[in-house]
Amino acid sequence: MQHRTIGDLMTRDVVRVRPDTSFKEVVGLLADHGVTALPVVDELDQPVGVVSEADLLRTVAAQPDPGGLPPSKGRSNGAHPVGEGSTAGELMTVPAVCARPEWTVVEAARLMDGEGVKRLPVTDEAGALIGIVSRGDLLRVFLRRDEALRDEITLDVLARTLGLAPADVTVEVRQGRVRLKGRVESGRLVPVIERLCRGVDGVVSVESDLTCGVDGPPEAGLPG
Asked: What predicted TM-score, i.e. pTM, was given to this entire model?
């Protein structure tokens, strides 16, 4: 099976700023390019932080209110106290949480979820910025057609990987939901089939209605 990597999904033409980029320049770049955040890079083009609309709004919210409302008590971004800063380096959220191009969608999704971020700068082996991947980019794998999912499961998972004949297991896919029907020799093979099907890019869920013969050990070479 060929899993799509972050290198396949990321945006390569990345708009970036330097730490000394001004507040107004950052706002202009966000608006001009239709993005909500920009990686901040040093002189080696290595990400040192990310400046987002949320970071900019913290500064705006901390300003004196013409109507006399008290100052905002928003959270710090980890770089500077709330409301302070007029450059990308002073406004950015640090550290920059980065991904590598060879990562899978699952690896990047887990990092995003664990760190509570919406996007990940992607860096090469030297730590230089080569792309950026967003939550929307990761979700694009779920736009794959049901026919493509069925063919990959039937040909790659069942036939090539597990050596099953097309008549052994039939595959139905609707809206990314996979249903397996048929008969296999060993009950121990059923969870292996289910796990491999769940690992196909774009699969939402797997339901199996598989019967089995004798419950012997998996055949040699099967993924365990």
From this structure: 0.77
| All domains in the chain, ordered by first residue | 6-140 (3.10.580.10), 144-212 (3.30.1340.30)
- Residue 113: name the closest of 76, 140, 82, 138 by CA: 138
Could you please report the per-residue DSSP string of 65-97?
A: PTT-PPPP-PPP-SSS-TT--SBHHHH-BSS--
Tokens 């450059």 found at: 87
Per-residue pLDDT of the chain in tens (224 residues, 90 and over written 9): 668 999 999 999 999 999 999 999 999 999 999 999 999 999 999 999 999 999 999 887 766 656 655 555 555 555 555 445 689 999 999 999 999 999 999 999 999 999 999 999 999 999 999 999 999 999 999 999 999 999 999 999 999 999 999 899 999 999 999 999 999 999 999 999 999 999 999 999 999 999 987 654 444 444 44
